[in-house]
Amino acid sequence: MSPVGGSTAESASDPPPTLAATGLYSDFAARELAPGVLPFEPQYPLWSDGAHKRRWIRLPPGGTIDATDPDIWSFPPGTRFWKEFAFERPVETRFIERLPDGSWRFAAYVWNAEGTEAVLAPYRGVRRVAESSPGVPYDVPAVTDCRACHLGHPATVLGFSALQLSTDRDPLAPHASPPPPGAVDLAALVARGLVVGLPAPIAAHPPRVRAAGPVGRAALGYLHANCGNCHNRGGPLADLDFSLAVGADGEPQAPVSSIGRLARYRPAGSPELPRLVRGDPEASLIFRRLASRQPLLQMPPLGTRSADPVAVALVGEWIRTELARPRTPSATVLAATPAASLPEEELP
To answer: Are both 40 and 67 inside the same structural domain?
Structure first.
């Protein structure tokens, strides 16, 4: 399998040819993590057709994360992230690294069936390396696909933020797993001095999605994690914002309203549809796109061949019940302000 870029020649910017050479493990055969490699578990994981995932970060020696902007953390050059995808066995491990010039490089490593080796995937990715479910193939993405998602958000790194690592974890978050032994969360990072500049109110009051009820909290958290990388206030799709920003001052910031607004996207043969309709999932284009896997209709558009049944049920229930109420608390991330002092506003 050729290295990223399709060439057999290595350069300073090429990722290592094997996962064993990336620094994840000190003993690859024994799967013993290298010193300084820390596991973590976001509270709102990305849906990847049911893959079981494990995640790790390693900062360079003496390196710290600048969290002055709690929504866009700045990582020092040399920071490395790994994410393993498994369907009964490991299938791929994705790798991103911040380079000395501040840019990020992306790579994926494909595991052999015996689990004894993982080698660098081609730049174009690899199709059908496994099945996510009977008859449903699983593909290792192209580097361009990695860039499309990660570079669609100002933070670049997805799933490692004040909200995702909050100790106030959402018990209804779809597909969330308990943090593994030794995992770091927001409090642990602050205590270890690995995060600096985090506004004191946020450190004192871990971020929490605020909604009309627990279903709304989980639904909005899911949309934040699975849609907010592209649909955020900092990009070209800002008019549909699912990024739940904490804000540097610790004050909640509500996303742009979407209730009753006609969507720019129109399904083939269909009239214009509103994004969200109170109490009616089937009339809400957001719900229909979440539930579909027709190539031109589905959302998210990349990285999944199967709709997430848990999320479809959750978002449908949110629209039918909590969103049906005419006035509800704003969809925000609660950081420093007590819930009782927040104004009543419409959900997005």
So the answer is: yes
Q: Residue 57 sits in which domain range?
A: 19-204
- Three-state helix/strand/coil letters over 141-190: CCHHHHHHHHCCCCCCCCCCCCCCCCCCCCCCCCCCCCCCCCCCCHHHHH
Strand (E) or helix (H) holding 286:
helix 285-291
Per DSSP bridges, beta strands 195-196 and 65-66 are parallel
14 domain-assigned: no
Strands 208-210 and 80-87: unpaired
**What pLDDT score does 204 carry?**
87
Tokens of 140: 């290792």
| Cα–Cα distances in angstroms (integers) from residue 28 to residues 19, 23, 183, 219, in the given order | 9, 9, 20, 38
What pLDDT sits at residue 237? Answer: 57
Which ranges of the chain have pLDDT less than 70?
Answer: 1-12, 152-153, 231-257, 326-348
CA–CA separation, 276 and 109 (whole Å): 39
Distance separating alpha carbons of residues 43 and 66, to the nearest angstrom = 21
Q: Residue with structure tokens 């064993």?
A: 20
Domain end position, chosen among 154, 173, 204: 204
Query: What is the DSSP pairing of strand 80-87 with strand 32-33?
Result: unpaired
Going from the C-alpha of 161 to that of each of 29, 189, 283, the distances in angstroms are: 31, 11, 33
CA angle 274, 279, 284 (to 5 degrees): 25
What DSSP element (H or E) covers 82? strand 80-87
